[in-house]
Amino acid sequence: MTADELDSSPDPSDVETRDAILEQVDLNPPTRLSWCPNCGEAVGSVTSRGLLDHTAGPCGCSLTPGQVKRL
Ligand SMILES: [Zn+2]
Q: What is the CA(64)–ligand 1 centre distance, in A?
């Protein structure tokens, strides 16, 4: 193996790919909390009318306090 072979390693392309993946992750807005434990739909919001009354949105399933904590 010679020094020329080491210098010609095409590293720049790998760096570009990694940057593109990081950009995609950053562009994803954290609007989704988690997945509904009842129906499996993506939960975008949780409406609370009291300590024991929580409703997942937009699917509308009732959630227990323990389920809300896990979201
Ligand atoms: Zn649901």
A: 12
